[in-house]
Amino acid sequence: MNYVNSVQLADASNNFVYASMVILFLAIISFSVSFAAGRRRVSPIEVSSRRVLVESSGSQVHETEVELTQLDPGRRTANIGMSLTCLATGMLLVGVVLRGVWAGRVPWGNMYEFSISSALGILAVYLVWSTQRDLRWLGLFVTIPTLLTLGMAVTVLYTESAQLVPALKSYWLVIHVFAAIIGGGAFTVGAATAGLSLISGKGWFTQLPPREKLEGLTHKIIAFSFPIWTFAVVAGAIWAENAWGRYWGWDPKETWAFITWVIFAAYLHARSTAGWKHQKASVIAIVGWLAFLVNYFGVNIFINSLHSYAGV
Amino acid sequence: MSTALPPMSQRGFLRWLWRQLTSMKTALILLFLLAIVSIPGSYFPQRGTNPILVEQWIADYPTFGPIFDSIGLFDVFGSPWYSAVYILLFISLIGCVVPRLGVHWRAMRSQPPPAPKNLVRLGGDTFEVEGESDAVIQNAHAFLKKNHWRTVIGEDPDGSRWVSAEKGYLRETGNLVFHFSLILILVGIAIGGLFGWRGNVIVREGEGFSDTLTQYDAWGGGRLSSAENLPEFSFTLESFNVEFERDNSQAGAPRLFEAKMVVDRPGEEAATTHLVEVNEPLVIDSAKVFLVGHGYAPHLIVRDSKGQVVLDDAVVFLPQDGNFTSTGVVKVPDSDPQLGFRGLFLPTSAISEELGPHSIFPAPDDVSVFLGAWAGDLGLDGGVSQSVYTLNVDNMTQLGLESLRVGQTWQLPEGSGSIEFTGFERWASFQIASDPGKELALIASILAIIGLSLSLFIQRRRVWVKVGQVTEQGSTSGVKVEVAGIAKASGHDAIEQVDNIVETLKGRNVS
């Protein structure tokens, strides 16, 4: 690849990442407006019953829509936020893919690339889950951490693309890191629902789904991500055996991956222990996510680890 | 809440203790403890992975260093308190899952429980279909069987017949497989710890190595491992290739390590050539040879006061930073007086006020050595073994300092001789390791992931179909059918399953 082409690819990748950040910011505004508007609205049950009344009264479709918007003022802005989130995800996907094309390998060879891929992972988990149930209310709480991740990536962690150090030249890089990205993305979404379950119904947060519902959703997403995280750890161990001559050596990254695993194992146990099912379990889920963050940022930046690679 | 006080009798107390230990709440607390006690292992340098940093830490903090050392903060994962937590956790685990084995075994062999009296109370569907009750029951039964439900047919005292079905036993099977796999992983780790071994060796280009204990620079094995049973092989490091990034912001980052090795094994006629890279170890029987590091060995020729060559060798220098500023020691016991040198090898030389002489790029672009010479007694005769990387200058006097480029010779002061820097070689360091427990640990890990997925994604559900009294409607006769179902786990239901059964029974015209 000649020099001009590679510079163009690099610029294009960065531009797509920036564009997705701008769109994500607009999505956050939309979700915030929706959230603020939703505060004044009547309870969801009332809305649905009134909606049934409107629909059964035989009025025209146009009128029904106006009625619904009045009843549920945050609805339209939430839909806008949702569309913007889809658009931002598409932009970010292009940015990540271009980065991979530029580097000629999977786009997670350093912390910058890992961060933009993780941001994509969070959005992907959220959007895929959204196809199965209405998660518009969650949008605000997923897009904010995603934008923060991207913000960190482009400011603190940015590195020029380069070839991999020999230790990373392995197909296990694809498998191990991909599993970590998806597992981490799902843990992030789970931390959002767990956090919301703690404040649902209080003060500003009366329009959120009820606490039990949020706890159930947290359980579902963590039950999804825990086996993936387990797989990521095992894949990492297989790779470590091949590269460093031992499958487990308590390197700080390994240690924190293990700590994260143990905390989420505790979460799953708490969910079937009397007296721990509810708030306590949600707190554990958040603590587990914090351990994941320590592993993700802390170990690379503050601790001398075998996983501290080029460009942070 | 364990408000119950322990009973007074000893047996009762032990039983109480066992129940406490195997309770879910104890497991939870032990899991938290395990997470917490792991944290210092990531913060403090650990003896197992970085013994030099540990010594440095203790030296830097003379007050806390020894205290932390004595409570095992530099060997967290081998400390008694860490072991206590995970051993308790595994006892708790065994105590929890072993009784469940029997329960699950019986559950898998027993029939689903009979249908409850009132299905409507369970939120079931009630409807009527044409046909006889027997045909409806057979229809429902066939449908459930086809969809892998475990079924039983029965009859209530009032004459209504039912099919009871249950599904999702794999959930508990998976759960048990997962927990037993964790025990297996621990066994795998233990086997590796007891029978495994690992050794390190530095080999210069052109030099050979044969797998016997004396050839290793360092070797350590488990309690039951034996240095006598090392696999028989030898190799020669034919060449070692390294490339570094030169272009962009990551200049100096390694891009390629590649050791070309000629391996000789008894029983094989010809020696074979292998390329060993970082992610591609060489496998020999139960052992693997990993490439773990590399560096430079400056070639030096030392002549004594009479001009006799007393040393002519490439001396291994150890890299101190990413740009391979390397340090090493040269000992010349055969000259009179004995000579010793402390040296710096710089692949790409630079000097600054802050750092002194140092290297600014890892590749040999502008090579030089900085040497400090001492004369006197090396202290080798006392019988105390010395590291080849340190020079004891207690009984020596310094002769001077000099920097040399390739081909230059330094005439030592006072006619003590000379030292010539003729060039350099590369060396590679290898870790040769055998871990007989790793296959078991891998298989157990795979089983654990499978079991975990089953236990999290499969739901245990029961459904019932009940056929009541005959209803007459004109010329056709039909029966009243009730279908209901439940899921065992909270947050789940059997609505979809019930709907499927209802559709099947309604959709097919039973005549």
Summarize the entry for a quick read.
With 312 residues, chain A is mostly helical.
Structural overview:
The complex is a heterodimer of chains A (312) and B (511). With 312 residues, chain A is mainly α. Chain A has helices at residues 3-39, 44-56, 61-71, 75-103, 111-130, 139-155, 171-199, 211-244, 252-270, 279-302. Chain A is flat and about 55 Å long. By secondary structure, chain B is α+β, with helices and mostly antiparallel strands. Chain B has four domains: 10-105, no CATH class; 111-167 and 461-507, TATA-Binding Protein, CATH 3.30.310; 193-291 and 431-446, no CATH class; 295-430, no CATH class. Chain B is 30% helix and 34% strand. Chain B has nine helices and 23 strands. In chain B, α3 (51-60) crosses α4. The radius of gyration of chain B is 37 Å and the shape is elongated. Classes of the chains: A mainly alpha (312), B alpha+beta (511). At the A-B interface, α8 and α9 of A face α2, β8, β11 and α8 of B.
Number of helices of chain A: 10
Low-confidence spans of chain A: pLDDT under 50, at least 5 residues? Answer: 41-70
Mean pLDDT of chain A: 83
* Most extensive chain-chain interface: A-B, 56 and 55 residues
Query: Mind summarizing the main beta sheet of chain B?
Result: 7 strands, antiparallel
The quaternary state of the protein chains shown equals: heterodimer
The helix/strand class of chain A is mainly alpha
The tally of strands of chain A reads: 0
Number of helices of chain B: 9
Q: Give the N-terminus to C-terminus distance of chain B in angstroms.
A: 59 Å
Radius of gyration of chain B (CA) equals 37 Å
Query: What general form of chain B does the structure show?
Result: elongated
What is the helix fraction of residues of chain A, given as a range?
A: over 70%
Taking the sheet with the most strands of chain A, its summary is: none
The secondary-structure element order of chain A is HHHHHHHHHH
Q: Report the span from N to C terminus of chain A.
A: 26 Å
Radius of gyration of chain A: 22 Å
Number of strands of chain B: 23
Helix content of chain B: 25-40%
Shape of chain A: flat
